[in-house]
């Protein structure tokens, strides 16, 4: 049985217990959220038997982040992808997607699943493309076979663009960037060539049966997501979203776990509406948001512009944020880019958790603030999202060990440190300060 099926029967599974401990929530609440479809626990039975640490994605849980890695036809191999996986997990990614499109896809995926304590996601159509001499020769059975093959390897969740319908394609013709999803564009090409409906839609129940066998979580892809601000919140995007709402109910009817992928480029003022609309249309299924980027003019810094949108999305109901690296739109990320992307999105997700008052979300902030006031530099480093970076920056100008206890940093120096000045003020008794304020006020009359 799947997690959602067991939850519907009133069972609290060991995986739900584990998630409850991580989230500081009651196990019964986790069970109820999974049963209602508002939370997923991506845990393929094959991966779970190896080294997977269960985690929950849903509105009641802390906001999660995903890191995309994977090779291309141009560069990278299994060793490099393993380095990226280690970087992603080390800096705090909650899940990792293998988006490999080059050589050695099977080897890379198996290496990642065998090494990863976090859920691994994929986009199966990429490997179908690699396996065929001509993608347009694809048959629906090719997709079914690939989904089962990857499920057997231990993949925990899969992006399948089942909501892109042939009747939606005309709605994209006046877009600036058209269909930017790789999977969405491939399926559009296939549908136009064969003059047939999306095979992922017509064979949806067959796919559900495969997912059920391994308890693979659906990540129903938004193949018509906007690729620029001008295309955001258009008829094509929302037509597909309506179909995703239908597919959510069909997957639940087959006891499949489901999350829904969301738009990639959205102006800041439209983000809350997009979050609220998805929650309503998709019946509360967790929303997995790709970004969103809030401006289009930040190549090289897209991890920053998208993290701004991600924080807003998280505050307004997104359950997981798919990171963007500095290389977005420019090239294949390396381990350094993965680090930058993960940290930017840890900031966004944590800001969302603080804003949503998640249990324990602000404890680390308050502890760091206390350490900062007490000039406990080593404790500040430990509590930072990226301790190595914090220590490096401090030590650029004051590397000696004696400065780890100094009551100043190189920005203010010893004379201008406001916290040291505050500490001197606090040496006065409160009644002395009150008496001083009263005397000044009297003198001013």
From TrEMBL:
InterPro entries recorded: ThiC, ThiC/Bza_core_dom, ThiC/BzaA/B
The UniProt record lists the keyword Lyase: yes
Gene Ontology molecular function terms on file: 4 iron, 4 sulfur cluster binding; phosphomethylpyrimidine synthase activity; zinc ion binding
Keywords: 4Fe-4S, Iron, Iron-sulfur, Lyase, Metal-binding, S-adenosyl-L-methionine, Thiamine biosynthesis, Zinc
GO cellular component, one term: cytosol
Catalytically driven reaction(s): 5-amino-1-(5-phospho-beta-D-ribosyl)imidazole + S-adenosyl-L-methionine = 4-amino-2-methyl-5-(phosphooxymethyl)pyrimidine + CO + 5'-deoxyadenosine + formate + L-methionine + 3 H(+)
Cofactor dependence: [4Fe-4S] cluster
GO biological process: thiamine biosynthetic process; thiamine diphosphate biosynthetic process
Positions bound to Zn(2+): 265, 329
Tree of life domain: Bacteria
Cofactor note: Binds 1 [4Fe-4S] cluster per subunit. The cluster is coordinated with 3 cysteines and an exchangeable S-adenosyl-L-methionine.
Residues holding substrate: 68, 97, 126, 161, 181-183, 222-225, 261, 288
The protein's role, per its UniProt record: Catalyzes the synthesis of the hydroxymethylpyrimidine phosphate (HMP-P) moiety of thiamine from aminoimidazole ribotide (AIR) in a radical S-adenosyl-L-methionine (SAM)-dependent reaction.
Name of the protein this chain belongs to: Phosphomethylpyrimidine synthase
Lineage, broadest ranks: Bacteria, Pseudomonadati, Planctomycetota, Planctomycetia, Planctomycetales
């Amino acid at each position: 049985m799947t997690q959602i099926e067991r939850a519907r029967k009133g069972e609290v599974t060991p995986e739900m217990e584990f998630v409850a401990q991580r989230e500081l929530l009651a196990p019964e609440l986790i069970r109820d959220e999974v049963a209602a479809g508002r939370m997923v626990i991506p845990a393929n039975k094959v991966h779970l038997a190896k080294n997977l640490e269960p985690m929950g994605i849903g509105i009641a849980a802390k906001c999660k982040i995903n890191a995309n890695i994977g090779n291309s036809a141009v560069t990278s191999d299994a060793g490099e992808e393993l380095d990226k996986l280690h970087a992603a997990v080390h800096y705090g990614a909650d899940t990792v997607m293998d988006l490999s499109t080059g050589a050695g896809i099977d080897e890379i995926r198996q290496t990642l699943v065998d090494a990863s304590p976090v859920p691994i996601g994929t986009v199966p159509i990429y490997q179908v493309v690699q396996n065929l001499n001509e993608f347009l020769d694809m048959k629906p059975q090719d997709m079914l076979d690939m989904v089962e093959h990857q499920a057997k390897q231990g993949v925990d969740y899969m992006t399948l663009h089942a909501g892109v319908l042939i009747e939606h394609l005309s709605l994209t013709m006046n877009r600036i960037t058209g269909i930017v999803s790789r999977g969405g564009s491939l399926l559009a090409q296939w549908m136009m060539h064969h003059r047939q409906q999306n095979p992922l839609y017509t064979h949806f129940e067959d796919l559900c049966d495969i997912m059920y066998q391994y308890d693979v979580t659906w990540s129903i892809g938004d193949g018509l997501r906007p690729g620029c601000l001008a295309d955001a919140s258009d008829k094509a995007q929302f037509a597909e979203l309506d179909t995703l709402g239908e597919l959510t109910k069909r997957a639940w009817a087959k006891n499949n776990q489901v999350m829904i992928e969301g738009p990639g480029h959205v102006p800041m003022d439209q983000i809350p509406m997009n979050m609220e609309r998805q929650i309503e249309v998709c019946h509360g299924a967790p929303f997995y948001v790709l970004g969103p980027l809030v401006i289009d003019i930040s190549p090289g810094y897209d991890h920053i512009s998208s993290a701004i949108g991600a924080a807003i999305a998280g505050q307004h109901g997104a359950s997981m944020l798919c990171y963007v690296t500095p290389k977005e739109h420019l090239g294949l990320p390396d381990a350094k880019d993965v680090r930058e992307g993960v940290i930017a999105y840890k900031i966004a997700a944590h800001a969302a958790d603080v804003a949503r008052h998640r249990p324990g979300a602000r404890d680390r902030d308050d502890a760091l603030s206390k350490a900062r006031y007490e000039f406990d530099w080593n404790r500040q480093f430990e509590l930072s999202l990226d301790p190595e970076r914090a220590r490096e920056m401090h030590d650029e100008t004051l590397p000696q060990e004696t400065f780890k206890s100094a009551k100043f940093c190189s920005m203010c120096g010893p004379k201008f440190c406001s916290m040291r000045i505050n500490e001197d003020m606090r040496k006065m008794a409160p009644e002395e300060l009150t008496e001083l304020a009263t005397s000044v006020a009297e003198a001013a009359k």
